[in-house]
Amino acid sequence: xxxxxxxxxxxxxxxxxxxxxxxRSKNILSSCHTYYGGKGINTGFALGKLGIPALATGLVSExxxxxxxxxxxxxxxxxxFYPVKGATxxxxxxxxxxxxxxxxxxxxxKPISIKELDDFLEKFEHLLEPDDWVALCGSVPAxxxxxxxxxxxxxxxxxxxxxxxDTSGAPLxxxxxxxxxxxxxxxxxxxELVPGTxxxxxxxxxxxxxxxxxxxxxxxITLGSEGSLGYDGNELLKVRIPSVxxxxxxxxxxxxxxxxxxxxxxxxxxxxxxxxxxGLATASTQKLEPGDFDHDQLDIMISQTIVEExxxx
Length: 313
Description:
This protein has helices at 39-50, 65-73, 114-127, 148-158, 169-177, 187-193, 201-213, 252-265, 270-284, 295-303; strands at 3-7, 11-18, 31-37, 54-61, 78-79, 82-84, 89-96, 101-106, 133-137, 162-166, 182-186, 218-222, 228-231, 236-240, 306-309. By secondary structure, it is α/β, with parallel strands linked by helices. The strands form two sheets. Strands 1, 4, 5, 6, 9, 10, 11, 12, 13, 14 and 15 form an eleven-stranded mixed beta sheet that branches. The two termini are 32 Å apart.
């Protein structure tokens, strides 16, 4: 058994740090770092640091495959990407220390050809093994139909393989139709999926149950500094996270995905998986590199994370 992460639209993340942003004025950066990222790659990196058997695949520029592979291999993660033509998209994340918030400027990514996608799909199917978990993460580049995740979910279901979906927009709406095992999205994406949900907790809870009733086994909605909500069809759980001074936000959600899947790999309960995932996400905000964390910090964050039932189902 392994966890297979899929990244169709990787990015080179340029993370810029500043004390306070002054709009339409000169700003002096306190630091600038570049990392090879993408949601599934960040998830795989965190899984490797946790010692969980993982394999990262997806579509990566032939010029950058070695860089992505080196990054993942150094934490024990296998990398088996399909090489595509063209440059990897750039993402610029401006992290403001005074507010603990970031601002993103992301390129959309180079279009993918039909042949490149078909060849990748053939590779993907060969990588699947019984009892795997497959994490389908992130945006979809131009040239790929918005139903791509739905196609991958149906393929995995035909082989009785569990899937986790974490995306947005049209790929999210199409992907949910295929009924993944696990859906992990934020509140903004929930409103894309269930228009009119808003930010009232009662409406969010109702939307979570609606998604669960469609056949999705696990639903988790992340709420930023407010923690997250999770539902497994039995318990509706609220996760409260500790307040920390944030160094970086990029990849925190991907770290949570990694933590939850790692807990499932170790046969934890849903409640414990939520706690571990939330603790890992918080620990990752103490590092700039997406998916990175210190193990000592992880233990502290888990001990300060509270998971409680919202009300009996």
